[in-house]
Write a structure and sequence with these properties.
heterodimer, A: Purple Acid Phosphatase, chain A, domain 2, 18 strands, 19% strand, B: 20% helix, Serine/threonine-protein phosphatase (chain A), Metallo-depent_PP-like (chain A), manganese (chain A)
Amino acid sequence: MSDLDQAIEQLRGCRLIPESQVRELCYKARELLIEEGNVVSVDAPVTICGDIHGQFHDLMELFRVGGDVPDTNYLFMGDFVDRGFYSLESFLLLLCLKVRYPDRITLIRGNHESRQITTVYGFYDECIRKYGSANVWRYCCEVFDYLALGAIVLGASSTLEPTSNTALSSMPADSELETESLNSRGEVMMSTYRPRQRSSSDASTDSRNISPPRDISAAPGQAAAPSRSGAPGTGASGDGNGSATTSRTGAVLCVHGGLSPLIDSVDKIRLIDRKQEVPHEGAMCDLLWSDPDEIEGWGLSPRGAGFLFGGDIVKQFNHLNGLSLVARAHQLVMEGYKEMFDGGIVTVWSAPNYCYRCGNVAAILELGEDASGGGTVARSNGEYGRSNGIVTDNRVISPGRRYRVFEAAAQDTRGMPAKKPVADYFL
Amino acid sequence: MATTCATVSPEAKKPNSITINGFRISTQKLPILKADPIEEMTRKLGIAPPEMIFGDNYVAIEHEKGTWGINFNAFDALDLVDKTGQSMLQVAYSGEWQKSREKTHEGIKEVVKPFDWSYSTDYRGTLHPNARPFEPTTKPIPIELLKRPDPILFFDEVILYEDELADNGITMLSCKIRVMPGRLLLLTRFFMRLDHVLIRLRDTRIYVEFATGEVIREYVSKECEYEKVRQMLAATRDDIPAFLRDPNRLSEILPVVEKRSERLVLGD
């Protein structure tokens, strides 16, 4: 068994690895991450996860519900550390898995992956407590600086394969499964369907001169060969401006926080010099900090820093970039996930019973692989949008979305706040 | 789009309670609110509730004879938060942020729904609609009696709301209650620390002497600029970050800005 496999075993048991090994791990991780672009390109199938916040036992529950690495392809949208009691174990395990299976797990940066925030919200203190010095905290912070800022998921299927226990008879005729929410036992809690009538007659109303008929019932093995214009993760693109290429199902952009008024195309994210502490302003800050809100256009947070963005902004951004969905984390939601703006954006939250007291459930989002054989279809993103500036309602089809909702793990009680408060003689 | 919904029925959890000497004390602790109740609360309040909103939680004291009672809940506390934006604070790096923003996005000027996002409240509890009002007093809560190690028959700690101020500190409203054979003490504490800006503590204490039916309500508000507190601590050997997270210790050094005491004696 290699050292790395051994470290993974040890960390899975919630036992830390020696400082020297952490140093080596962080060094290897940095070498790996430096090769990744600001926006990593990920092929479906993939399971998208939100905030973890050092809740190690719940991360184990997440793997139980979603499958293990490398069997399942994972994308974590940041905020691995702070708040919970096991930031070190959680982050180091994810990092080990990243180094061991670089193509099966993607880590992007959250606003908590920062020196300043971790000194206030627990990770720094935990490193001092568990390792006796700030060395490990420093190694980890160096890794944070190399984490990607976002990811693009390509080749997701527009429809879900019904789960085995979905009563097919309950599915409305002429429709297909669009979203489904399952509990941790795999039972269907909620499903939504969309009409199957997405044939070429639909496409005829499409003013754009793009060809792929949107008939998802098309026979597999169609001619459209994958012809992605350059690997999006590298920024290399064949047509000069395209990068977020779309499949018939639009691509999915994953970021921790949200959009930025400085970023109108995915390519602009690629131009950021990301290898630094999270700044207090600018595009990089916005991607990690901003929130969607029920407003029009852009707004300023009443806190005096930070942006809020409305549904029109998401719609336009998705349209210009050939995206069907923005997946983000960053905000606690009681149900584990929350779609907004007609499904144009979703918040995924993966820390159940947040801070060991909120009683919320968590969720992960599974995007299936487009098995219809078409794969990705090249299209220069942004071109038509920029030239005529008209945002039409011709959206690409959103991917089929399966949410797996889970509760907090029954954890051992070491270091946990007592469930029943201890009576004290407060005054 | 067709939607089918299999709702999960929440566990029917009974509130904790104790009845003693003609008083009934009860508490309820449930998870944070779901999306729909949050939306409803937002509509009723006119402001977005805090990130962690324990809207079903409460602590209540009721007198069995008559109609006196007081309870503490999140909605009523939040209803007292300034909704106009007049007493709005700004995070520490706001100046820096605004300056850089002005250069790049002149068009974006509108502050979305301004309100006091620190959720500062001077909530002192919700009285029963027919309760006799309190009257001002100078009589203090008898601390010595509360320092005695009388057995604690009932104890609970209930969070009403909490917000991380988008990682700029913390704001929290929580209640603690302890019931002894002869008396009870309830402390509702609002604690807000906006890093590098301000620390605020607002305590409401309810004291009930069972034998006499005497109820004393005391409200003490303390606050101080963050930097001043840091300077006070710099001279000590304390672990400053830990100190700044601990409202009990902060309470000992923050200056009082307001204090009000009220009293009431419940008859038969």
